[in-house]
Structures are given as structure tokens and as C-alpha cells.
Design brief:
The protein is mostly helical. Helix content is 58%, strand content 0%. It has two domains: 8-105, Fumarate Reductase Iron-sulfur Protein, Chain B, domain 2 (Orthogonal Bundle), CATH 1.10.1060; 108-210, no CATH class.
């Protein structure tokens, strides 16, 4: 088994400074990588989420790797890591701040773009369901629509105005455009990846056949 050495081509410590601008995140630099956050992370039990890795990348100045990482969007913001950290590092708040930075750079992930679009179009990140949900509410003797933006169209206009005035609509559009570009590049790279995997498989088969013949060869 060969060990591949990873060469860090770009280090940007400005990211740490950008995060710690917020007074609540001033303890970002206090992390000493004990792993308590990752060890107790509920999301990490079911996904590839590794809180410690995100913090390490931020402290190491690996800005591009961190802000483009899928791990950044797997946090459920349950605050278990922050509650258990022996150094009182507000890991969850750091991740939220990093997400904001990523979103301003157009690196928002597809599912999050979809939630934001739902918010703009319906006033809810998760809009009300269809007929089964409405029927269920009736069985509970509730009105078909809850007393939220669904029942007050004028409130939806207010939500949309806020989204526009804060520039959030532009972030959504930017994130959607970046996602489409990433999907396009991924599709263009797919044939090359398949070819590389096929070549690797052929090599493994050849090596296995060579090893088999070596074992079957009569010993002199």
C-alpha cells in the first residue's frame, strides 16, 4: 500500500480573521484538535461530517478546500460539539459563519438553494404538503392552512421584499448558477473518471493474474 503525499498549494489565513471578526467566534483559534466535537457529533454517526476537520482546515488556511467541502453543509446545528468542547470553541457558530462566507462566494449547495427558493416563493423553507397533509389537518379539526404566510398573501410579499432588500435573492441566484456550472463540469469529467476506473480495474486484474501465475509456477 502506497502513501500519497498531499501538497498544499495555497494557504490563506485571512479566512480565520474573517471568521473571528464576530466577537462570539474569538475562540476559534483556541481549538487544539482533541476530537471531542467529531466524537460526539450526531450527524457524524450517519454522514461523513467531521467537525474537527472543518476547524483544522480553517486554522490551516485551506480556504478553497474548506468552503467548497460538502462537509460544511452536513452540520445539523444541534450544538452538541459546542456544549462538549473543553476549550469552549463555538464550533457550530463557526460553521454557520463559514456557510455564510461560502454562500457569499456562490458556493451554496443545491439542496440549500432549493430551500432558499422555497422561502422566497412560499414564505417557508419547507412549504406545506399536498392533499394528504390538508386532510390530516381536517381530521384534527384544524383549518386546511395554518395561520402562517400560507394564509396571509400580504405577509409573503413582505418576506419577498426582505429577501430582495437584504441581497439574499442575489445570493440564491448566484448559488444556483454556480451549482449548474459545477454539475456541468462534473458531467464533462464523468467519461474521464470512468476511463480511469476501467484502467485501474484492468491493472488490478493484470496484477492478480501475474500473482496467480507466480504462485502456480513450479519451484526450482
Amino acid at each position: 500500500m502506497s502513501i500519497k503525499r498531499e501538497t498544499i498549494k495555497k494557504i490563506d489565513h485571512k479566512l480565520v480573521e474573517e471568521v473571528v471578526e464576530d466577537e462570539l467566534l474569538e475562540r476559534f483559534k483556541s481549538c487544539y484538535q482533541c476530537g471531542t466535537c467529531s466524537g460526539g457529533c450526531p450527524s457524524g454517526r450517519r454522514t461523513a461530517m467531521r467537525t474537527r476537520e472543518l476547524i483544522r482546515q480553517g486554522l490551516a488556511g485551506l480556504t478553497d478546500e474548506l468552503l467548497s467541502s460538502d462537509l460544511l453543509w452536513l452540520c445539523s446545528t444541534c450544538y452538541t460539539c459546542a456544549e462538549r468542547c473543553p476549550r469552549d470553541v463555538p464550533s457550530t457558530d463557526i460553521i454557520l459563519k463559514l456557510r455564510n462566507i461560502a454562500a457569499h462566494r456562490g458556493l451554496m449547495r443545491g439542496p440549500h438553494v432549493a430551500v432558499c427558493k422555497n422561502l422566497f416563493n412560499t414564505g417557508h423553507g419547507v412549504p406545506i404538503g399536498g392533499e394528504p397533509w390538508l386532510t390530516f389537518r381536517k381530521t384534527l379539526k384544524l383549518s386546511p392552512l395554518p395561520p402562517t404566510v400560507h394564509s396571509f398573501p400580504e405577509a409573503l410579499k413582505e418576506v419577498q421584499t426582505i429577501v430582495k432588500e437584504t441581497g439574499f435573492e442575489q445570493l440564491i441566484t448566484q448559488g444556483e448558477a454556480v451549482q449548474k456550472e459545477m454539475i456541468k463540469k462534473e458531467q464533462e469529467m464523468t467519461p474521464q473518471k470512468i476511463k480511469a476506473l476501467e484502467d485501474q480495474l484492468q491493472k488490478l486484474k493484470a496484477d492478480a493474474e501475474k500473482a496467480k501465475k507466480a504462485q502456480e509456477a513450479p519451484k526450482k
